[in-house]
Amino acid sequence: NCLTMDPKRSAQDVLRCHFCETLVPPLYCDTCSIHLCTTCGGEHLLDESTEHRVVPFKKRGYTSKCQKHSLKLCELYCAQCDIPICAQCVSSKEHHLHDVLDILSGIESKRNVVQNDLLELEKCIYPKYEEIASDIHLHKVNLNDNSQKLKTAIDKQGEDLHREINSIVTKLKSDVDEMDSTLLADLNRQEDEITCTISKITQSIADLKNSLNSKDVSLFFAYKFRNAEFKKMPPKLTVALPKFTPHMLNKEEIYQQFGSLTALLVKPEEYGCTMDPGANTSSLNKTLVDVPQIIAEINTDSQDFDDDFLCNVSCLDDQHFWICQNDTMMRLYNLKGELVKSLQTKSGYRPTDIAVTRSGDLVYTDYFDRTVNIVKGTHIQTVIELQGWKPDCVSGSSTGDLLVVMDSDDGEQTKVVCYSGSSEKLSIQYNDIRQPLFSSRYNPKYICENRNLDICVSDCYASAVIVVNQAGTFRFTYTGPPSTTKELFSPRSITTDSQRRILIADLDNNCIHILDQDGQFLRFIESVISPLGLCVDSKDNLYAAEGDKCRVKKIQYCK
User: Fold this and answer.
1) Where do the NHL repeats start and stop (predicted)?
2) Which residue among 169, 470, 485, 491 is the one 20 to 30 A from 140 at the CA level?
3) How far is CA 116 from the centre of its chain?
4) In this structure, which long-range contacts are made by residues 409-417, counting pairs with CB atoms below 8 Å and at least 24 apart in sequence?
């Protein structure tokens, strides 16, 4: 047979009808997995011992046995259940009112889905993962290179300081030698004078004794009175030997003078992937609206006592927020004004401030108990206990750390401390010339971290907002808008949004100041009364706690 000798046809030549061995049979039985010619295919269908499905050879493999009815073949496809089914399945109630398609249509539909998924995997998802893997490798290489450069710079700074210290040590030792030399010369000179005088006195004593023992009276007449000369004693030296007084080395000052490392910033970025060329990939920039809109007003009056006063608010998510009032409770509300949960402080004192951490846990400060506490479920865990200091306000950071404002017991000092767990990472108290950054008199000082990692502190007594960078270095102070308000700037709670804008509650002027990240005044929000607490949700909606009204306003101020 010449066909069997053609290598291009050899793969096809081995296909023969299972019964009559006719070459290149056009049919295939999916049930029995055999090749059939046209004649044998018709005869094969007459076999009633099982349900055969004979299909064109190109469509082989499209038939499967029903999972529920093992003797039946799946000739249909349920779009809702996304499974092949048999005719008996259709008659059952399980697929009642479902869209049932021919199995070939279902397979074709699934084939299109698979092809699209394959295309998306090959063209979009896989390259993105390769890009991420490449970025990780590059970051690791850059990490090693940067670490070597940092260590080299640190070593050089250390060597420079060692040289300076060695120079100081050498100079001080030289000064000691010079003082020793000067004093020794004075002592030697006086010693020589005293030795000479002692020699003269000794000789005079010997001469006087000789005169007294001699019978030669001429010696008496020859005697010269010298006691008056010897009575003129040389001045007695009073020597105050030099002492070395080492200065107490302040670690914080040493670190500041030596140098500092900027914080490691690991910022996850979204790797967008879409096969739709018309997908919206526009920037997420949100601009301020001309007239802020009040979306909701939520009354939080607990009615537990007559003198309710709303102190602060902190968003748990876009539908829930925590508040604290002038009692010992912390309360969780939804936007309908329904009380979802309430918790009492561990100590029984009222909470000084509340915040929600990056992981969604509630954290609060207890000024009188000197503690910072985290609420996990219904359990309250004390994470920081202070000695000599009292915690004021608190905020979570983007890295999961806690930023705590605290006052010294004597009321003379205020500082901001960054904690990782219960360990102190950074203390911020002074500017570059050792002047206090914050007023020392006790008053509420609110704090937050901006999206550019700046730390912003609202200082009521100083009528100012002080902003430092993540290393604690002073950036700027905001003391009010360019135009004069009715009352003195009275900053309370402070928060930031996704655009790095800083929002400040101005209690006495019944408004909220909006600044850019560099402290430039942008505009007011004036639809609030006695605002004390502020926070924003994930969509940049502002929540403003009106203290006297015990009311939280949800405000849309950007879009």
Assistant:
1) 475-518
2) 470
3) 39
4) 411/440, 411/441, 411/442, 412/440, 413/440, 414/438, 414/439, 414/440, 414/445, 415/389, 416/447, 416/455, 416/457, 416/472
Query: What is the share, in percent, of the chain residues with pLDDT greater than 70?
Result: 89
Q: What are the boundaries of each domain within the chain?
A: 2-107, 129-243, 288-558
User: Is 2.130.10.10 the CATH classification of the domain at 288-558?
Assistant: yes
Mean pLDDT of 482-505: 90
> Which pLDDT score, from 0 to 100, does residue 177 have?
92
Work out the pLDDT band at 282, boundaries 50, 70, 90.
very low
- Asked whether 489 and 479 are in contact (CB, 8 A), the reply is yes
Paired strand residues for 321:
315, 333
- 281 has pLDDT over 50: no
CB distance 81 to 68 below 8 Å: no
Give the pLDDT band (50/70/90) at residue 267: low
Q: Is the pLDDT of residue 1 over 50?
A: no
Q: What is the pLDDT of residue 13?
A: 54
Residue 455 Cα to chain centre, angstroms: 11
Structure-derived torsion over alpha carbons of residues 236, 237, 238, 244, reported in degrees to the nearest 10: -170
Q: Residues 430-457: what's their mean pLDDT?
A: 90
Lateral strand order in the sheet of 76-78: 83-85, 76-78, 100-102
Measure the CA angle with vertex 531, ends 465 and 344; round to 5°.
Answer: 100
Rounded CA-CA distance 394/402 in Å is 7
Taking the C-alpha atoms of residue 68 and residue 80, their distance in angstroms, rounded to an integer, is 17
3-state class (DSSP) for residue 145: helix
How many C-beta atoms lie closer than 10 Å to residue 156's C-beta? 10
Cα separation, 7 vs 22, whole angstroms: 19
35: burial class by Cβ within 10 Å (0-12, 13-18, 19+)?
buried
Cα 323 from Cα 342, distance rounded (Å):
10
pLDDT at residue 11 tops 60:
no
d(CA 65, CA 152) in angstroms, rounded, equals 71
Q: How far apart are CA 214 and CA 244, in angstroms?
A: 60
- Closest of 53, 52, 18 to residue 37, by C-alpha: 18
Between CA 520 and CA 373 the distance in angstroms is 35
Higher pLDDT, 392 or 443: 392
Partners of 344 in the β-ladder: 329
